């Protein structure tokens, strides 16, 4: 997908409505290989979905090991 296409999709009214929300579901693979899907707050800064967590959160080690994720924005 090109950057122009991504920009076009993100500028759509529905995309903007979803990006204005503050809760999403973050899916990732735990270190033991099992899937995880957790609610997490996020903020859209115009370019990236920014998420914060504590320094000792178990998901950090998992994400360092395997950074592949999926995000679903709650409606």
List keywords for this structure.
two-stranded antiparallel sheet, 3 helices, 75 residues, alpha+beta
Helix content: 25-40%
What percentage of the residues does DSSP assign to strands (E)? 25-35%
Decide which structural class fits the backbone: alpha+beta
Please mark out the parts with pLDDT under 50 across 5 or more consecutive residues, or reply none. Answer: none
Q: How are the strands of the largest sheet arranged?
A: 2-1-5
Query: Helix and strand succession?
Result: HHEEEEHE
Largest sheet: 3 strands, antiparallel
C-alpha Rg (nearest Å): 14 Å
* Helical stretch tally: 3
Distance between the first and last residues' Cα: 25 Å
In round numbers, the mean pLDDT is 93
Label the overall shape: globular
Write down how many β-strands occur, each being a DSSP E stretch of 2 or more residues. 5
């Amino acid at each position: 997908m090109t950057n122009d296409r991504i920009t076009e999709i993100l500028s759509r009214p529905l995309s903007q409505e979803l990006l204005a929300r503050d809760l999403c579901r973050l899916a990732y693979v735990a270190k033991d290989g099992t899937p995880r899907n957790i609610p997490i707050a996020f903020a859209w800064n115009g370019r990236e979905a920014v998420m914060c967590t504590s320094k000792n959160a178990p998901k950090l080690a998992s994400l360092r090991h395997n950074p592949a994720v999926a995000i679903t924005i709650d409606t």
